Amino acid sequence: MHDILNWLGSLPEPLLYGTILLAAFAENVFPPLPADTVIALGAFVAARGNGTAAGAWTATMFGNISGAMMMYFLGRRFGMPWLSQRFPRTFTPKAMEMVSRRFRSGGIATVAISRFLPAVRALVPPVAGAISFGAVPAALAMTVASGVWYGLVCFLAFRAGANADALLDKIASEQRLAGMIAGGVVIALLVGGFVVYRRRTP
Fold first, then answer.
1. How wide is the angle at C-alpha 123 spanned by C-alphas 166 and 8, nearest 5°?
2. I need a labelling partner for 46 at 20 to 30 A (CA). Which of 71, 90, 107, 186 fits?
3. Per-residue confidence (pLDDT) for residue 196, from 0 to 100
4. What is the model's pTM?
5. What CA–CA distance (Å, rounded) separates 28 from 14?
6. Half-sphere exposure of 80 (CA within 13 A, CB side)
7. Using an 8 Å Cβ cutoff, are 91 and 84 in contact?
8. DSSP assignments along the chain, one per residue
């Protein structure tokens, strides 16, 4: 972690923003990438004289939404069979049917909330594309979710003082909390949808 921090600290402001942008873009394509760590440390470095909060957040948003929409259009182009091959353990036929139904019935709110779930947020854009969820509503939902989350990350980075380790611990804690809240909301929506479905079924 400290090696990444030192490297980011050695970058001039344009390259620092470029690195943050690329990390935010790549997390949609390669989910195991620790993009939150790179973005948080990049914002941390920016706060200490290499940039601004607005610059770090803007670079993050541009990269994240660009990557998300690229995956959205790939999902739209190749559909669920492609997703099944790319994520065979996650996208079983039953899971795909459930996610598809939830996105269609829940609309923008469900797409946005799903982007707060750490384990699945990178899968939201291609699934939305594969089920032909509207491009504009999808972009709006993901922009709102990313704007809130990365706004928090940048805010914490600029308020972190001199302790990068404490910053990463705080972000990990906030991510777990956001994931738990989003998971609870998704479960509530699923239960609500099931109840409505049962009432409508003779």
1. 35
2. 71
3. 40
4. 0.78
5. 22
6. 14
7. yes
8. -HHHHHHHHTS-HHHHHHHHHHHHHHHHHSTTS-HHHHHHHHHHHIIIII--HHHHHHHHHHHHHHHHHHHHHHHHHHHHHHHHHHSTTT--HHHHHHHHHHHHHHHHHHHHHHTT-TTTGGGHHHHHHHTT--HHHHHHHHHHHHHHHHHHHHHHHHT-TT-HHHHHHHHHHHHHHHHHHHHHHHHHHHHHHHHHHHHH--
- C-beta separation of 20 from 63 below 8 A: yes
Amino acid at position 136, single letter? V
CA distance 8 to 3: 9
**The token pair that represents 196 in the structure block:** 């409505």
Show the tokens assigned to 37: 């760590």
How far is residue 148's CA from residue 176's CA, in Å, rounded to a whole number? 15
CA distance 140 to 65: 10
The helix-helix angle for 93-114 and 135-158 (nearest 10°) equals 60
Amino acid letter for position 85: Q
